[in-house]
Amino acid sequence: MAPTATADVESPPTPSPSYGLTLPANAAKRLASAGIDPQAYPTRPQKPEYLDQVYAIRSEYREHIDPGSRADPSKRALLSAATKVVHLTAHIGTELHGLQLAQLSDQQKDELALLIAERSVVFLRDQDISPQQQRALGAYFGTVEVHPQVPQVPGVPGVTVMWPDLQIKEGGRPASFRQPGGAARWHTDLVHEAQPAGVTHLHNDTVPETGGDTLWSSGYSAYDKLSPDFRKFLDGKRAIYRSAHRYVDRDDPAAGPKFVEREHPLVRVHPATGWKSLWVNRAMTVRIVGLDQAESDMILNYLYDVYERNVDIQVRFKWSPRASALWDNRITQHIASWDYEGNEPRHGTRVTSLAEKPFFDAEAPSRREALGLDN
Fold this sequence. Notes:
Order of helices and strands: EHEHHEEHEHEEHEEHHEEEEEHEEEEH
Strand content: 15-25%
Mean pLDDT: 90
Radius of gyration: 20 Å
Largest sheet: 8 strands, mixed
């Protein structure tokens, strides 16, 4: 029997087989310039086998002060340094031109955190940022999550490798047009954590020339789409959220692998903006606490549709090599389009910063209420 894990203990990374795959040229060049040997790439943490081991990871409460909460509301230091600021839609998504993430001052990082909190996702192209610098920026936004299941950049724990060709090889089932796989469905990252994900930063050094876009949907606007009476019904409700992976319950191994599950508010408040956001996703929200399963399913399926079917609260980003996207998992869902069908290489690295324990405040406004917008 494996020993019980203790909180926050990380196993030494081990080399991860690359199945004979060749790194895309842009990725190999970026790694080499950062002093990372592409021949030793990637590594992965030792996967936990048992449910209690996963519950023990990051089980201790961590104080989190959101950088956006101390930012200048005008964001003058950040926005004045940009050569261009483009709001891609009315409700979600902003692209900044002329800035390098690796060169931001602390004041600019605070203001970037607030901009992400207000606009849900921020994009920057032509970024010169190493995996080490990407991790350092993530550590500024919160506790960097070291994923127990996925490949990592050697020597830079918490920088996850996003390489679809490798993921398909390791998954054992090739993606297809009809069944494209995991990220090609609406979801929010790491909702099962005791203190779930805040900002995620995905940097893609290699992207398809055609297709491969990513879409985000706004939790602020999804909440505002609901009728006032329905909002009142949902306010204060709690739900069960599960992990993406299953683990063996050592106390009941015959039951088969189980998900990690935790309870959080169905409507949460962002600490930097103070706005309410609908916080559900079809992939990992299990049920609403206090309701029968049939009642919960009916309500949740409607709420998922609000996120997924209202194109006016979504933004679609066409990637280019060396582009970065930074989004806030507390107020968004996202989905990757696999329309390129694996016919072109794609590779990037991702850092996710864990944030506060989700909370609800009945007195908090919605985004439209705070901005004085009519419903």
